[in-house]
Amino acid sequence: MTNPTTASFPETSSQIVELLSQLRGSAEKKQLQIISEQVNTSPVGLEVLMEFLKEEPLSPPSLSAGLAYQTLYQANIPTTQEFLQTHFPAGIVPLRSEMGIDYAELQQKLAQQDFLVADTLTLEKLCQLGGSTALGRKWLYFSEVEKFPITDLQTINTLWLVHSLGKFGFSVQREIWLSLGKNWDKFWPKIGWKTGSNWTRYPNEFIWDLSAPKGHLPLSNQLRGVRVFSSLLSHPAWSVKAE
Fold this sequence. Notes:
Elements (H helix, E strand, L loop, with lengths): L3 H4 L2 H15 L3 H10 L5 H13 L7 H13 L2 H10 L16 H8 L3 H16 L1 H6 L4 H5 L3 H13 L7 H10 L4 H7 L3 E2 L2 E2 L26 H8 L10
Antiparallel strand pairs: 1-2
Helix pairs in contact: 2-3, 2-4, 3-5, 4-5, 7-8
InterPro entries: ARM-type_fold, GUN4-like, GUN4-like_sf, GUN4_N
Pfam family, one: GUN4_N
Protein name: GUN4 domain-containing protein
């Protein structure tokens, strides 16, 4: 995309080319650093992000693509709005569902970094996956979790992962859980759900931003019981590559 405003300034075009070259040739960790530190919400920075997203593979989207998308989304100016509406009308993460469930609002809240509302929506969507009875009671049995469609669980997880710089999501929690030998007593304090003998109280004691410990969200402890959470973290969705 060539911006007529920047095209008349060779030094600006050269900045865009240089930043794009850095992004293309860097590993994801470095890309995140470049986007966070060098690419800002100036016209040049936004132009770089739009060009980057147009050529970045998005199946599934990388954390770098997620950060680029969020930066453009939160800029909330006509140029970025038009770009996102044209190229990503449903968001950066493909909202696949085997049950016809709509994840658009969840993606929107995560893009806005409204993690509290996103967490509430996540539980609602999980209960939808559990069926009408689970949706009515607003919590799940482990046997319902075991039957979750792989596609839907991966969609929810990818939304959290991509919109949190890889900090939140079921797969992140699973990785921590496995690294601790599936020891729940070590797991709860590690992700900030327990301090000493005291459980973190919902919602005010939880941290609803990226300063939270890794794996802090979403709050699957609200699903009632270790058996339910164990079923979630042991689901076959984590053994199959997400599309």
